């Protein structure tokens, strides 16, 4: 496998859509809104999405937003999505995506990264713990 990581491009949107829907289970991202979301995010430097490419195929992605926080100089990076195609999992791609984002964070002076993961995603929780992320809070949400 010849893996490269780069910034998302428009041609990647449908591959990313499959990862959002299948691997993460988020069907709120769909073919009608994915381009709108990523085009809007591309206009704001706080948002970053990186894709893992094997040959010409997108096999994973990580997307994030740099947020401000009182008491944290330069804020923190919130990882809002990370997924690798099932047949490519357990080959180090997710880890490489995390490290790529961590290097980006260091470059811009951010020292704190956070993420949320659905309670049902036990394997994802193990993956994050193996990569140095600790479970130190609860996430609450409400649809209104």
Arrangement of strands in the largest sheet: 1-2-3-4-5
**What is the residue-averaged pLDDT?**
91
Ends apart, CA distance between termini: 44 Å
Helix and strand succession? Answer: EHHEEEHEH
Q: Helical residue percent?
A: 25-40%
Binned strand content: 25-35%
Number of H/I helices: 4
| Overall strand count | 5
Overall spatial form:
globular
Task: Return residue spans where pLDDT drops below 50 for at least 5 consecutive residues.
Answer: none
Largest sheet: 5 strands, mixed
Radius of gyration (Å) = 15 Å
Structural class assignment: alpha+beta
How are the SSEs placed, and which strands pair?
Elements: E1 3-7, H1 13-24, H2 34-42, E2 47-54, E3 57-69, E4 72-84, H3 93-107, E5 113-115, H4 122-130
What does this structure look like?
The structure is a single chain. With 144 residues, the protein is an alpha+beta fold. It has 4 helices and 5 strands. It has helices spanning 13-24, 34-42, 93-107, 122-130, and strands at 3-7, 47-54, 57-69, 72-84, 113-115. A 5-stranded mixed β-sheet has the order 1-2-3-4-5. The longest helix has 15 residues, at 93-107. The termini are far apart. The model has no long low-confidence stretch (mean pLDDT 91).
